[in-house]
């Protein structure tokens, strides 16, 4: 039998009748890592389950989180369009998602609710659908160690206390993490991530103000 050449990464997970003639602009000049992920068939991707998610957070290997290949493709298309329409991802976050007029905090960290907004992660990782991925955005800085890029002991303690009082009373299983500086997709607005296992839907609606992640609002690439 003749040897079949592998598909270019930009054609994987795309129906044959929708194949572009050449690599789309939004997939040009992406990292080798993203090329490898996008070039993997969804059928070969395994969703992470709750125990795996908790363990990656516990050992601080959040770099191991990956989006499902077809979702990463959609994410790349979406952010490419955002930059053209809004000038930058930060402008979109501030003006559309957060709707903050300024970034000046009104109080000390976690003291004023107006300095905090909880939204869904617009493009969550490839995880069990029973895990809800939220992002806590803050107007105040959460200090990182300049040498390691990780939370300082003090900022970690502040986040932990906030997460416990905000999520602890209503969710049995949860964990949080703050991305290493090198992994952040939005650098200019402080944020950290919270994963909830099987949370109450009414609680989520109250917490996020009825938010809907962008992945559910936009069409496929």
- What's the CATH architecture name of the domain at 45-66 and 105-219? 2-Layer Sandwich
| Shape designation | globular
CATH topology of the domain at 45-66 and 105-219: HIT family, subunit A
Please outline the major beta sheet. Answer: 4 strands, antiparallel
Tell me, what is the CATH class of the domain at 45-66 and 105-219?
Alpha Beta
Mean pLDDT: 91
Strand content: 5-15%
Helix content: 25-40%
- Taking pLDDT < 50 over at least 5 consecutive residues as the criterion, the unreliable ranges are none
Beta-strand segment tally: 4
Class from secondary-structure proportions = alpha+beta
- Using only C-alpha atoms, the radius of gyration works out to 19 Å
Distance between the termini: 33 Å
Helix-strand string: HHHHEEHEEH
Strand order of the largest sheet: 1-2-4-3
Number of helices: 6
Organism: Ampelomyces quisqualis
GO biological process, one term: N-acetylglucosamine metabolic process
Protein name: N-acetylglucosamine-induced protein 1
Q: How are the secondary structure elements laid out?
A:
Layout: H1 32-38, H2 50-58, H3 69-86, H4 89-98, E1 116-120, E2 131-138, H5 153-167, E3 173-177, E4 190-197, H6 201-208
Antiparallel strand pairs: 1-2, 2-4, 3-4
Summarize this structure as a short list of keywords or feature phrases.
alpha+beta
Gist of the model:
This protein is an alpha+beta fold and 221 residues long. It has helices spanning 32-38, 50-58, 69-86, 89-98, 153-167, 201-208, and strands spanning 116-120, 131-138, 173-177, 190-197.
């Amino acid at each position: 039998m003749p040897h079949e050449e592998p598909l270019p990464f930009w054609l994987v997970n795309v129906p044959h009748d929708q194949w572009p003639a050449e690599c789309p602009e939004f997939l040009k000049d992406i990292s080798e890592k993203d090329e490898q992920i996008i070039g993997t068939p969804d059928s070969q991707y395994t969703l992470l389950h709750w125990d795996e998610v908790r363990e990656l957070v516990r050992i601080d290997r959040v770099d191991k989180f990956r989006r499902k290949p077809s979702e990463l493709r959609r994410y790349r298309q979406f952010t490419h369009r955002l930059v053209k329409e809004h000038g930058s991802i930060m402008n979109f976050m501030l003006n559309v998602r957060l709707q903050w007029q300024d970034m000046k905090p009104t109080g000390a960290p976690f003291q004023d609710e107006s300095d905090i907004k909880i939204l869904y992660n617009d493009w969550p990782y490839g995880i069990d659908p029973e895990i809800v991925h939220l992002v806590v955005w803050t107007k105040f800085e959460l200090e990182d160690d300049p040498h390691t890029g990780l939370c300082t002991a003090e900022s970690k303690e502040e986040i932990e206390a906030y997460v416990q009082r905000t999520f602890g009373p209503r969710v049995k299983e949860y964990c949080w993490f703050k991305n290493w500086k090198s992994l952040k997709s939005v650098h200019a607005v402080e944020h950290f991530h919270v994963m909830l296992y099987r949370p109450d839907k009414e609680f989520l609606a109250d917490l996020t103000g009825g938010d809907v992640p962008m992945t559910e609002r936009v069409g496929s690439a």
